[in-house]
Amino acid sequence: MKDTHPTHIALHDAGDADEATFGERGARLARLARVGLPVPLGRLVSVDLVAQVAAEGAEAALGDLISAVAGRLPPDGLLALRGSPERTAWGGPTALLNIGITDARLPALIERVGPGCAAELYFRLIAGFGVTVRGMDPDEFETLVYDQVKHSGVSGEAELPAEAWASLLQQAKRAFEADTEQPFPQSVETQLAAAIDAMAHRWHTPSARILRAARGAPEDAGIALIIQRMVLGIGERACGAGIAHFTDERSGVPLTWGRFLPCAQGPDVLMGLRTPHLITSEERARAGQSAKALEEMIPGAVTTLAGLWDMAGSGLGESYSFEFTIEDGTVWLLDAAPGRRSSRAAVRIAVDLARKGAITREDAILRVEPRNLVEHLHPQIDPTAQRDTLGQGLAASPGAATGKIVFSPEEAQALHAQGEAAILVRVETSPEDIRGMHSAAGVITVRGGMTSHAAVIARGLGLPCVVGAGDLRLDAKRQKLVARDGRSFDAGDIVTVDGTRGEVVAGAPAMIQAELTGAFETLMSWADQVRGIEVRANADTPADARTARGFNVDGIGLCRTEHMFFHEDRINVMREMILADTREDRVRALDRLLPMQRDDIVELFSIMRGLPVTIRLLDPPLHEFLPHSRDEMHTLAEAMDVPVSQIVARAESLREFNPMLGKRGVRLGVTMPEIYDMQARAIFEAAAIVNLQNLEQVVPEIMIPLVSANREAEMVKARVDAIAAAVMAEREVSLTYRLGVMVETPRAALRAGDLARSSAFLSFGTNDLTQMTYGLSRDDAGRFMRDYVNQGVYPEDPFHSLDIEGVGELLLMASQRGRATNPTLTLGLCGEHGGDPASIRFCTLAGFDYVSCSPFRVPIARLAAAQATI
Ligand code: PEP
Ligand code: MG
């Protein structure tokens, strides 16, 4: 909690200092000191005290402290003054180093570090003071050094002899006096007070405020100060400054690396004025550098640093990178920041820290952003690779894939057959493209949103996909993909889809491969031990189910059976069923579909081995199964031996103005009950077959889509129950099954109490429920969603992250009404939101039993579910 009493405290006594009082760096240094790390002695001046300095001046607000610090400074001691804003990212004033050198104190410093280094330090103080306190132009001092280097005939500043520095010191004093019309201050108190004043005032100037605000700082953001003893990286014995890291940025594997400048002070390394040395000999060998590494220059320093890293990890539960200075062979820490890391590295580091006992397993789970797990699940473009971005769209399905551009599903299949990777580029995809999508390595659509066909299927298949790439143009006539900068690409040209970032990239940038073992696996197992909600998968095919199983799911929460009918060898039978004129013809076609459906379901049940499998009865409007192009209609007419006009007429009769609101879902089941009859039979026969073979007994869950009236559900249930009874009698087996309803319409949510009375479960289809609650087409929203989100109309795409206020309220209301009439009711969610961490948190808090999401999002959901439970 923020201490509102203006105060200052010894850094080594401030172990529990907080950021709001002493700033991020101040609080961190205090913690490092607390666990015994070598941090130079110092004092922290609180944010409120600095504000007082800004108002009253350093003498008035802080005079006693300044005198005490200056009085205690040994004759050869120097001070550093650093700003410590509450967040380092807000920026802040440059540190002023080497405070305390005066003409009178110079001899003691010469004694300590020799005449050349002492003069250099004095020069640096005058330059730093001139620039940061008196507002002089840094060029003035840089020019002096530049000219001196030329005059002395050496290759750089580091080679300047002692006399040259002595001369530079005199030049700096003259420049200071000429510019400020005052001699350089000759007392430690005056230097320190002026520096404190300058830092406090600078922070409160209007331009500093504006700059900070641009970095996200609040209007009243404050700054604390750190007054510290200087450790001298400049001297005649082993000394210098550097930055050391201890884990590999990409993998998180322990690895020591960094930079070091002999005879230098911290900012020199950051500014990169001189070419730094590497830290370890191994690193040097890898980089093919001849200059010695720190390890070789100052034996023991790297081992010491590694030991300090270990100590900081155990004491503070973080893998830090260090900013360090070496003075006479002794290592000191000037700062420590959590090392930069990729998402993969973050997992490895969190798991390693928990294994060491530095943090708890819960902490490790909380430290990893669930969405970032996609980096483990799919190949990604190497973050260090150059990218030539052609266009952007929605990041519809994560991962990256490189391949040759194809413009049709047939070409994708052909290329796949030759063992080559294809990137399927379409304006939008439709169910007919599914086979092509199966053969593609990645998919790009110019239109479409997060729940468009391409997006949903790609996520299911784990295919990298970018949809709604509106700044790309598809010139279908000339078969060209035109980039936003006008470059055009033909079929066969190589591109890369980055579905993680929503970008289409030219050529084949370097990739990093998926990684599902090691630390990832460990973290997942920890997450499973704490999470309080089941994670199931939306799996339509045996291949999906296998993938889901590989990700350790708790079952299948949604099997969209229609996807079983898009197979090459099935689609025409399906079409015959749809085109049938009479009920008898329809039943004949359905009889042929039955074994196909049953075989798939047998496989699903076998793969899931007794885990719950929820199978949804047919949902889409029938016209989706019919051919769209004239050519395909001809082919179908030939195959069915009917005139093409008959097919055209039937397709026309099925056309609807609003197909998503038309004859689909349970409305098909009510008006063409034979379809659901066939599906129910396939499910029960499959269960009977599997239960005969396996010990783990299948309890199929049958789900009715798009219900809005209880009577619809009752009618379907009556027929399903009858078919179950028939199959049991025919096969002389006993089967247990559960019947449930999808809540996808606002009316179903309102009437959930009725629906629950005779349902074993309610599963919220939040894709349709969002569409219908907003009155917003899920297939068209992508065209303007980015504008809406950018303008803040919606905080987020509601098809992506559940609209807690609106759709969420329907979910809460329906779940309460449902459980009121049926206390044993199972509640689940199976829309795309089932893989979204914020939506999973909502479902956990609302007491749902499961969420169900695309197989490749299962690990993300497992981690998010654990975080929601902790
Ligand atoms: C839904 O609407 O949320 C759902 C799961 O069904 P579909 O996406 O197949 O319409
Ligand atoms: Mg739906």
UniProtKB/TrEMBL annotation:
Start and end residues of each PEP-utilising enzyme C-terminal domain: 517-868
A Pfam short name: PEP-utilizers
Gene3D superfamilies linked to this entry: 1.20.80.30, ATP-grasp fold, A domain, ATP-grasp fold, B domain, Phosphoenolpyruvate-binding domains, Phosphohistidine domain, Pyruvate Phosphate Dikinase, domain 2
Keyword terms, alphabetized: Kinase, Magnesium, Metal-binding, Pyruvate, Transferase
UniProt-annotated binding residues for Mg(2+): E744, D768
Residues reported in the UniProt entry to bind substrate: R560, R616, E744, G765, T766, N767, D768
Cofactor: Mg(2+)
Keyword Plastid belongs to the record: no
Catalytic activity: pyruvate + phosphate + ATP = phosphoenolpyruvate + AMP + diphosphate + H(+)
Keyword Mitochondrion in annotation: no
TM spans (from-to): none
Domain PEP-utilising enzyme mobile: 421-502
Entry-linked InterPro entries: ATP_grasp_subdomain_1, PEP-util_enz_mobile_dom, PEP_util_AS, PEP_util_C, Phosphohistidine_dom_sf, Pyruvate_phosphate_dikinase, Pyrv/PenolPyrv_kinase-like_dom, Pyrv_kinase-like_dom_sf
Catalytic residues as annotated in Swiss-Prot or TrEMBL: H453, C830
Enzyme Commission code(s) on record: 2.7.9.1
Annotated GO MF terms: ATP binding; kinase activity; metal ion binding; pyruvate, phosphate dikinase activity
Record-stated family: Belongs to the PEP-utilizing enzyme family.
NCBIfam families, A to Z: pyru_phos_dikin
The protein's role, per its UniProt record: Catalyzes the reversible phosphorylation of pyruvate and phosphate.
Protein name (database record): Pyruvate, phosphate dikinase
Originating species: Rubricella aquisinus
